[in-house]
Amino acid sequence: MTPAVVVSGVGVVSPAGVGLELFLHAAFEGHSLAAVDTWLKGCPVEIACRLSDFVAKDHGIARANLLDRYTQFALVSADEAMRQAGHTKESTENARLAVILGSGAGGVRTFEEQHRIFIEDGFDTMSPMVLPAGLLNMAAGQVAIRHRATGPCLAPCTACASGATAIGLAKQMLERDEADIVIAGGAEAPIAPMFTSAFARMGTLSRAEVDPAKASRPFDRNRDGFVIGEGAALMVLERADDVRARGGTPRVTVAGYGSSADAHHVTTPDPRGAGAIRAMRAAIADAGISASDIDYVNAHGTSTRYNDSIEANAITEVLGEGTLVSSTKGVFGHALGAAAALEAVLAAATVKSHRVPPTANLVDPDDACVALDMVMGSARETPITAVLSNSFGFGGQNASLLFTSS
């Protein structure tokens, strides 16, 4: 019999601040955190959802100047998650502790800053820490070092699905008895001039001449792109029996995981939503439940023209009319690989709170959404026992996670 895998602890860094409580409060309030960002001055798009006044050393991270911002976020999130789970370095000393930490961009801030120094001042002025700080696997490696995780250490990159992929792989690792505890999720700090301008050049960022707080409008008829964000979210995953045996309390069950590839286009989703449909159905099958058991979908909902309508049609195809749906990217922006993990945390929280967050700035739903029950305006209280969290990325990467009560 396949063991139940549960979440025993959660840690979050988001534009709302450091900590799970601030993140959940902002999500359920439903007010956008987007603003004009001085880091992007002179870029074609100057708005972002950034965590201001973040100082890593204030959160116990030593020698933070040697780490990229995305790694700093990951370390702070991992610390909170392990505290919540009731784990210490001593308590995990004899456990097979693994880390699976996804990111779509890695240390882009480090690379951009050091490239500027290289061009302006030459090779000898570059930091010797460019690669140890900036590589895509370094957040995973640093978390493993900090928590003495000597089990598998993986850094999956599935673009904006990376954080969900990490959690899904962690579930499978525990089911196969390849680890006892897994720290899993995603981290991202992509708010850098060139990287943000690249998205703008592609036409994926909102350029609406409105209040920045109204720019990201998932599923709205007048949406025109996303607002870039940042953050990290990490979960501690364990087998339910192990948590109870040590006197811990499972928060929620990671009941299902499904993934797929569109095999269609590097940036545009399959117009039929075929990949998204396969991922959702795989997650439901993995959980051993029926589509009719799903109470809510935390949608990928980027606020881009193609994604939202295609995803809405895919959800309707899999779950039927009247499905309860919302997206929180209107609040936090799109944190790329970290968004998948942040939204997984939120999806799991709805199971515990029986409260569904609203979609910020959704006023006039797209025609594709008319068959769905879109949560607008304010959070909704409703019984929740099973939730899907969707995440899709460039390259046609799709991942769906399914959470149920423990």
Task: Describe the protein in words.
The chain has twelve helices and 16 strands. The chain is of the alpha/beta class. The chain has two domains: 241 residues, Thiolase/Chalcone synthase (Peroxisomal Thiolase, Chain A, domain 1, 3-Layer(aba) Sandwich), CATH 3.40.47; 150 residues, 3-Layer(aba) Sandwich (Peroxisomal Thiolase, Chain A, domain 1). Strands 1, 2, 5, 6, 7, 8, 9, 10, 11, 13, 15 and 16 form a twelve-stranded mixed beta sheet that branches. Strands 3-4 form a two-stranded antiparallel sheet. A two-stranded antiparallel ribbon has the order 12-14. α2 packs parallel to α5, α6 packs across α12 and α9 packs across α10. The radius of gyration is 20 Å and the shape is globular.
Question: Which characteristics define this entry?
Answer:
acyltransferase, 406 residues, Peroxisomal Thiolase, Chain A, domain 1, alpha/beta, 3-oxoacyl-ACP synthase II, two-stranded antiparallel sheet, Ketoacyl_synth_N, EC 2.3.1.179, PKS_Beta-ketoAc_synthase_dom
Write the CATH homologous superfamily of the largest domain: Thiolase/Chalcone synthase
Query: How many domains make up the coordinates?
Result: 2
Low-confidence region ranges: none
The CATH class of the largest domain turns out to be: Alpha Beta
Shape: globular
Helix content: 25-40%
C-alpha-based Rg, rounded? 20 Å
The SSE string, one letter per element, is EEHEEHEHHHEHEHEHEHEHEHHEEEEE
Structural class given helices, strands, pairing?
alpha/beta
Average pLDDT rating: 96
First and last CA, distance: 17 Å
Question: Count of DSSP E strands?
Answer: 16
Protein name: 3-oxoacyl-ACP synthase II
GO biological process, one term: fatty acid biosynthetic process
GO molecular function: 3-oxoacyl-[acyl-carrier-protein] synthase activity
Domain Ketosynthase family 3 (KS3): 2-405
